[in-house]
Amino acid sequence: MDLLKRMCEIHAPSGEELSMSAFLLDYISKNQKKWKTKPTLHYGDGLQDNIIMVFGENPRTAIFSHMDSIGFTVKYNNEIIKIGGPETSEGIVLVGEDSIGNIEGELIKKKDKLFIDFNREIDRGTSLTFKVNFRETDDFIQSCYMDNRLGVWNCLEVSKTLENGIIVFSSWEEHGGGSVGYLGKFIYEKYGVNQALISDITWITDGVKHGNGCVISLRDSGVPRRAYVNKVIDIAENSNISFQLEVENAGGSDGNELQRSSYPWDWCFVGAPEDYVHSPNEKVHKKDINSMVNLYKELLKKL
Predict the structure, then answer these.
(1) Can you tell me the distance from the alpha carbon of 38 to that of 144, in angstroms, rounded to the nearest whole number?
(2) Which CATH fold would you assign to the domain 2-70+135-302?
(3) Global model pTM greater than 0.85
């Protein structure tokens, strides 16, 4: 879990994915020679901070996984405003860095506003994230930003044995999206691929429990095409890999942005469930992590 821990510690809230992108490009450069297939990389001009890895001559399915996290932006007089939907309980420790130096302070509330308790005025526009406390037991991993560093980690695990497929590391998912539309356009027009899996993290709910396998989502705030989702479920049922089905009316992912694009993308969310969502204590069962990696490997072979 050392790689996952290192990624959770990278400061990359929505809009500041550059550091996460640089980390991934360095990791890919150093490790791709050990993978079964060396990918073709697309990044840089025209793709902003996003990365596309293309494996093999006949990719059929693309995995989308967002690099960004939730967080906060410093406004005026150390007032802070949310990036995405982070938990805002008083006492949560926030960290960041501005032109003067490192920042660490507790979140406090004054009337209906949020502030960071710090001994000087912080540069306006500075981003803050939760302070990382990465914990591992026999059964669980717990840390902030499992959503979605675990989804990214899953993609790197799948990369080791992937022969044909596309992996996309996207931006801005936690704060409204904005990159997946043009990434999907690029992939569809250049490679003719129009089916996707969303490597992201979902919720523990009344119907989704720890340790019962990763989740295949039938719907959330978006409704994917059922014929495609049924193909995913059929492969999972024949794989002997544990999984759970999810039905929700809220939440979203890169899949929603694919569905809103002008290209005929099919998509399905497949990811491990976590407790304490968007907090410093996001908690995922190791059985569900293993299920996620194994199911993705199976899906990329069969879809």
Answers:
(1) 32
(2) Aminopeptidase (3.40.630)
(3) yes
